[in-house]
Amino acid sequence: MAKIEFRNVVKRFGAIEVIPEMNLVIEDGEFVALLGPSGCGKSTSLFMLAGIYLPSGGELLFDGHVVNEVEARDRNVGIVFQSYALYPHMSVRDNILFPLRFKKTPRDEAFARVKAAADLVRVAELLERRPSELSGGQQQRVALARALVKEPQLLLLDEPLSNLDASLRLSMRTEIKSLHEQLGVTTVLVTHDQIEATTMADRIICMRAGRIEQVGTPDDLYLRPSSLFVAGFIGSPPINLIAGEAEAGTVTVNGARFPLEGGASGSVTVGLRPEHLRFGETGFAGRIAQIEPMGREILYVVETGMGAVRVLEQGSSAGHSTGEQVMIGFLPENSLVFETARQKLIAGAHVRAPE
Amino acid sequence: MSVQAIPKASTAASEPAADWDALAARARGVRRTKAVVLYAFLIAVSLPIILPYFWLVTIAFSARSGVAETAVLWRSMAVVVPAVVAFWLTAALAQSRRQLWIGIATVAAIAVFAFAVLVGPDLHVGNFIFLWEPDFASVVRSRIGEVKGAVQFPNVWHAFGNSILIAGAQTAIVVTVASLAAYYLSRFQFPGRSSMLRSLLVLHAFPVLTLIVPMFLMLYWIGLLDTLSGVILVLVAFELPFAIFIMKGFYDAVPWDIEMSALTDGASRRQAFVSVVLPQVRNGILAIAVFTFIRGWEEYIFVFTFLIRNSNWTMSLYMYWVRDDVMGVDYGVVSAVGVFYLVPSLILYMAAQRYLMQMSIGGVKG
Ligand SMILES: Nc1ncnc2c1ncn2[C@@H]1O[C@H](COP(=O)(O)OP(=O)(O)OP(=O)(O)O)[C@@H](O)[C@H]1O
Ligand SMILES: [Mg+2]
């Protein structure tokens, strides 16, 4: 187990600066998720932890020791690649055994540990097969067993669930989470799926273009996103963002006036999550343009004076129909106000629905 | 079919149904024509390829008193031509793998039987005299009363050994160097990498014959003229670029993350290469090994130029001198030497066929 620290870490590929500067502490035994859109440098950060990439600057620390120069094979890091990277010419048993070959583990002990790791991820009956004879989910579990068998001090998972179908993804999510609780190994999960991150991780590191936008618990990111980017990235269906002008205690959006609590002025963006909006007697007016049933919830797209607004309502049958005129209300504490120019959250600022 | 479920659509669909049949018939006709053309082409191409080899073997085993008997050749042709045609027809008409194999086996059995009846009585191994009689040239000449002037031939097994040595050593060097160099070219960035890749192909484009004079001088000055190692070095130099290029294609196809995974699993760069990367390119290595070996086995120009003493003769030189010395006297012996020279490459090709097929696939990716 290890405590991980990035200190001013920089990574360049030739002239391209992929990670301008990264500062981050991951506590011993923690489960964190690196979340961000494609190409934002998640895998790159992970590969620096694994020792595959050398940082171009700054320091990387394991338990307070600088490991920049320590080779991948000496770091005792278990990694599951996005493609699983199983060795195609070896049986599942040999795949899982592979890391132990270089640790000079005695034969009997090695076999016992392979067995234990295979049992842990429930692939014990597949040991004689080749990777090509396994399903995606089975391959993923073998990769996990191979990463775990060496009892790593750090477990790295690079989008391990992205190749799986929806139901398998759901069950693997729970399995990986319970494995982490069982073993307590420091784990970094890379993902671009915000649901994966919020359901599995203790803390989420939200990245954008090589920079960390926000670090916090899933609740932090959902309730108090520090920027427009995080607000837009977390939550599904995505948050409604409405641009307006704040002046003398009101936000004016295309004629509609929202009373403002807390100080803000100039151009602001109001964030309203679809699940926090309610149809009612008061609020702002609109016309239902589209209805999308989503199983246990219904998503309404409502045309309003400030553009299309998404409203999510519980229940499996639509209580409203297309073309209907509605009023949309919300609780002030659920609203978020961002400074448009800097894209940052204005802490403590809320708007109320127009009366 | 659940046609009744959509009664309205079914009436609509029944109208163009006749058209569908016509379209299907036309497609079938086109397919059939294509098949006929294809198999006619295959027959036309395979006959001229197979027949010379077949005659070579037939002459080697049937010629008596130095002359190929035309009657035997015609009879053997009467067996082989129908057999080839029948083979392709079977391939064209077979509906399943099973039928194909049964068909081929039947054709082969009939051909072997016909051959045994028509040609069998004329077969003998007397023309392979060179295998046990080093001074066969004198023997053969004495049959027609010409005793003097025979070339002093070395033991054929000695020439055979030289050929194996040249081809084997060349293969070992080319495979080792190419698999290491290609790995480096495939995985690492270094200044001059792309120009090196380009020059690899350009090197291969030059006709080797143009370099024979400078090569001769170089070998002479180094002191490797008329030695097997000199020829091996020259052959390696000429074969290496292409082998590297082919191998690079195979390495490029090995996923990068497998190797990285091995590194994080505790392997050193070398261990990762040996235990994870090399097994993935095994077919490529086998392919270049077979090609290089056969290339060395067939080598003629360089051995002819750079080897002088008859104790250094390879099979190709042996063949050349047999043809030069005995051809006018005995076709049978020349053909028998040819067959003896042919057999190793034939065996190798057949054993490695599967891997050679893969080379074209792996190579394209280069
Ligand atoms: N070896 C490399 N050479 C040059 N640029 C690279 C290299 N590897 C990655 N990059 C660049 O670095 C950026 C970050 O890449 P990275 O693989 O870390 O993205 P990611 O966040 O993992 O994305 P994804 O979700 O698509 O996997 C990308 O813009 C990519 O083009
Ligand atoms: Mg990635």
Question: How would you describe the overall organization of this protein?
Answer:
- The complex is a heterodimer of chains A (355) and B (366).
- Chain A is α+β, with helices and mostly antiparallel strands and 355 residues long.
- Chain A is 23% helix and 36% strand.
- Chain A is built from eight helices and 22 strands.
- Chain A has a seven-stranded antiparallel β-sheet.
- In chain A, β11 and β12 (250-253) form a beta hairpin.
- In chain A, α2 crosses α3 (107-120) and α3 packs across α4.
- Chain A starts with a strand and ends with a strand.
- By secondary structure, chain B is mostly helical.
- Chain B folds into two domains: 21-124, no CATH class; 156-363, MetI-like (MetI-like fold).
- In chain B, α2 runs antiparallel to α3 (70-93), α3 packs antiparallel against α4 (97-118) and α6 runs parallel beside α9.
- The radius of gyration of chain B is 28 Å and the shape is flat.
- At the A-B interface, β6 and α2 of A face α10 and α11 of B.
- The structure holds adenosine-5'-triphosphate (ATP) and magnesium ion.
- Magnesium ion binds at residues 42-43, 82, 158 of chain A.
- Adenosine-5'-triphosphate is lined by residues 13, 16, 18, 36, 38-44, 192 of chain A.
Any key phrases for this structure?
heterodimer, A: 355 residues, alpha+beta, Rossmann fold, OB fold (Dihydrolipoamide Acetyltransferase, E2P), 2 domains, 7-stranded antiparallel sheet, 6-stranded mixed sheet, B: 366 residues, mainly alpha, MetI-like fold, 15 helices, 76% helix, disordered C terminus, binds adenosine-5'-triphosphate, binds magnesium ion
